[in-house]
Specification:
- The chain is α/β, with parallel strands linked by helices.
- The protein folds into two domains: 136 residues, NAD(P)-binding Rossmann-like Domain (Rossmann fold, 3-Layer(aba) Sandwich); 266 residues, Dihydrodipicolinate Reductase, domain 2, CATH 3.30.360.
- Helices cover 35% and strands 20% of the residues.
- The protein contains 15 helices and 15 strands.
- It starts with 10 loop residues before the first strand and ends in an 11-residue tail after the last helix.
- Bound molecules: 6-O-phosphono-beta-D-glucopyranose (BG6).
- 6-O-phosphono-beta-D-glucopyranose binds next to loops.
């Protein structure tokens, strides 16, 4: 079962910040892999644009060394050379005039032109303005912007306004890389491609939903950025919110950009405000050789959170009464992300008390070991009465599809190809981002007002004990964080 690769139309892609960290780690390797897979072919140009003084040969050398190191096993030297031949470079000043005429002269108006803003958000509006001034915003032009898209509602509005002055919303691709993950798209396939689940997908049958995105690593080299951001802004406002939307939304009429994004927006707008008693924030402490958060970021007094757990409700007919529990954090037990839909108990147990309490749980494992698992209750084999046990109907994609098919492309590969294809379905619309900030802002403001420190938790655990209590007081339990 070989997956189909349909080549995209020829395009010019300009990467602002083309020598930066994201370009090196994600964008260039993603383009290279799509080239190796045969999805990018023909007269395509990838133009790095950055402040660094460099020429095209220098850029090719830089990217060649990078790909030889990170993607060596993926293709032979001739393929790498063919990819490098597509690269060009312009030294540019995002806020000045240097490089813009040269860039404009390199681009052709009669083909797809994508501009990737892999730069700090303060430069978004400047870049958009200069692109328009140089006649580069018309026709098949589109821009790609990365998170963080603002740090609150006001700044997100400013960014939206800055872009909207020069580009139409249909030209703006706001990346949330979680939407590019294969298993996240599978969430929609599972819900809307099967008749089995949808009739049960509501508060009549679902007791609660839990979403966990746990990371084992700490903040690493991103301490400065992270400390100004925290888990709520870094993960909850975007990635967890998107997962919650896909789980909770109504079936869109079709799998198209506005149909899907309209439904997601309705979910965010239906979210109850989070009360202080429904949210727990934590910060990892030191343990043995592992440094604590404060020393990793070099700020002993910082109150930035590296962990958040919260409970919320989607106040609409489908979900009234079903709580959604979200948690995410760094330096937790494992790197493991999953969504668990926990169904209610059977209305009446014909097997009596000795059979115990059993529940169906549908688990969508996002990473690692992507797959879905449905816990069902069966009779414990053997004589000796009617005892019940829960067993998983496990579909690990690598086993079901074969290792090659389940070797999912990186989210950026999918998303960049969608930009070229002009498909915005897996990108966030401006109003969606603003609504998400509108929901997280009051929680963050409450923390700022209180001045309280986040609760300490030991590395390698499930976070602060209070996060466990968030569920136990409701008579529920978090699932174990395990790969
Ligand atoms: C990023 C956050 O958006 O997502 C990081 O800024 C986080 O802090 C990362 O580590 C997690 O992504 P993934 O794909 O590894 O789950």
């Amino acid at each position: 079962m070989a997956s189909r690769v349909i080549p995209v139309d020829p395009f010019d892609l300009v990467i602002f910040g083309g020598t930066g960290d994201l370009a090196r780690r994600k964008i260039l390797p993603a383009l290279y892999r799509r080239f190796v897979a045969g999805q990018i072919e023909g007269d395509v140009r990838v133009i790095g644009a950055a402040r660094t003084d460099m020429d095209a040969a220098g850029y090719r050398e830089m990217v060649g060394a990078l790909l030889a190191e990170t993607c060596a096993a993926e293709a032979d030297a001739a393929t790498l050379q063919a990819f490098l031949a597509m690269l060009d470079y312009v030294t540019i000043d995002a806020r000045g005039s240097k490089g813009w005429d040269e860039l404009a002269a390199k681009l052709r108006a009669d083909r797809i032109r994508a501009f990737y803003f892999s730069v700090a958000p303060v430069l978004f509006a400047d870049l958009a303005e200069r692109l328009q001034r140089h006649g580069l915003s018309d026709g098949d032009a589109r821009i790609v912007v990365e998170k963080p898209f603002g740090r609150d509602l006001a700044s997100a509005r400013d960014l939206n306004r800055g872009l909207a002055a020069h580009f139409d919303e249909t030209q703006i691709y706001r990346i949330d890389h979680y939407l590019g993950k294969e298993t996240v798209q599978n969430l929609m396939a599972i819900r809307f491609g099967n008749v089995l689940f949808e009739p049960l997908w509501n508060s009549q049958y679902v007791d609660h939903i839990q979403i966990t995105v746990a990371e084992a690593g700490g903040v690493g080299g991103r301490g400065e950025y992270y400390d100004q951001t925290g888990a709520m802004r870094d993960m909850v406002q975007n990635h967890l919110m998107q997962l919650l939307c896909l789980i909770a939304m109504e079936p869109p009429a079709k799998f198209g950009p506005d149909a899907v994004r309209d439904e997601k927006l309705k979910v965010i707008r239906a979210l109850d405000p989070v009360d202080a008693s429904e949210v727990v924030r934590g910060q990892y402490a030191a343990s043995g050789d592992i440094p604590g958060y404060t020393s990793e970021v070099g700020r002993p007094d910082t109150t930035t959170e590296s962990f958040v757990a919260l409970r919320t409700h989607v106040s609409n007919w489908r979900w009234a009464g079903t709580p959604f529990y979200l948690r995410t954090g760094k330096r937790l037990r494992e790197r493991a992300s999953e969504i668990a839909v926990v169904f209610k108990d059977a209305p009446h147990s014909i097997f009596g008390a000795e059979a115990g309490r059993h529940r169906n749980i549908l688990t969508i494992r996002l990473q690692p070991n992507e797959g879905i698992e449905l816990g069902v209750t069966i009779k414990e084999p053997g004589p000796g009465g009617m005892r019940l046990i829960d067993v998983p109907l496990d579909m690990t994609f690598a086993e079901a599809l074969g290792p090659e098919e389940a070797d999912f492309p990186d989210a950026y590969e999918r998303l960049i190809m969608d930009v070229i294809r002009g498909n915005q379905t897996l990108f966030m619309r401006g109003d969606e981002v603003e609504a998400a900030w509108g929901w997280t802002d009051p929680v963050i403001a409450g923390w700022d007002r209180s001045g309280e420190r986040p609760l300490a938790y030991a590395p390698g655990t499930s976070g602060p004990d209070e996060a466990l209590r968030l569920m136990t007081r409701d008579g529920r339990r978090w699932r174990e964080i395990r790969p």
